[in-house]
Amino acid sequence: MMIDYLNRRYGRLTVLRLVYPGVVYAKCDCGTEKEFILNNLRSGNTQSCGCLRREQAVITAELCNTIHGEYRSPEYQAWRNMLGRCENDPSKECYKNYYGRGIRISDKWINNFEEFLKDIGRRPNPELTLDRIDNDGDYEPGNVRWVDRKTQSQNSRRKL
Q: Domain limits at 26?
């Protein structure tokens, strides 16, 4: 029986030798050599020694920083929370209060944090939160502002 996996490439890995049944010793393109489970290579579950995942994590982090440069900023968090409230997902608790009521997000903002930030501006005070001026209106330019919690509660549909 011919061993068909020797010198064969699986992703970034090249099989060098059989260690014992089902386990091979392989070399990654980055130079790392170690043992791998052959079935994981064949199925595609393992494509490198781990360097591919690390590289992808770095690329993702750089992409986040390149796109908006501040994914931890309060403005970005407010934008993400706004997106989460208005998802078309009936299983979410907030569905009935937002998407289920017809509350939508401006096409200009839905996939573009920079446009949202350009229109709404920086949060001038850490105590302020994002608010819709017309509680029945959409999240869109001219209907969103930064307000304190007292003002926001007065604009709420909840009965106090």
A: 9-54
